[in-house]
């Protein structure tokens, strides 16, 4: 006798076929669906340059009154040349800003400053108050947050 004697609805072949059809149907249901809507807030990580572009732009805006010596957007470094305040010609400042990350975070920004005072016909190093550097960091971070907030039109 050739062939199978099972002719019922629940044969092994029919069960395997039904299982494969169910698995294929489940796989296909995941293919469709709605696209996700855009976020209301602008992303904190903007990488059109090597570092966070909000921090970069805010740093340049904040230091725009000082002459730039070096700026490297890929490495995230801004170095100003010596700046002398016309109201205080016996003192000059130099600032370095380093952006350390692609995210808009407070720890992604490092500001250092050097100060010199006129002495004996030349310039002598003088200490920089910690509050000066902290204030610069706060101004840059506030400006960066404003730029991010304004980038979505709100």
SSE topology sketch:
Blueprint (H helix, E strand, L loop, with lengths): L11 H18 L23 H10 L5 E5 L4 E4 L2 E2 L6 E9 L9 E11 L2 E5 L3 H21 L4
Antiparallel strand pairs: 1-2, 2-4, 3-4, 4-5, 5-6
InterPro entries: DUF3576
Protein name: DUF3576 domain-containing protein
Organism: Novosphingobium mathurense
Global mean pLDDT: 84
Overall CATH architecture of the domain at 53-150: 2-Layer Sandwich
SSE series: HHEEEEEEH
CATH class of the domain at 53-150: Alpha Beta
Largest sheet: 6 strands, antiparallel
Distance between the termini: 81 Å
Report the count of strand segments. 6
The CATH topology annotation of the domain at 53-150 reads as Alpha-D-Glucose-1,6-Bisphosphate, Chain A, domain 4
Rg, rounded, reads: 31 Å
Helix content: 25-40%
- Name the structural class: alpha+beta
Number of helices: 3
Global morphology: rod-shaped
Strand fraction: 15-25%
Poorly predicted sequence stretches spanning 5 or more consecutive residues: none
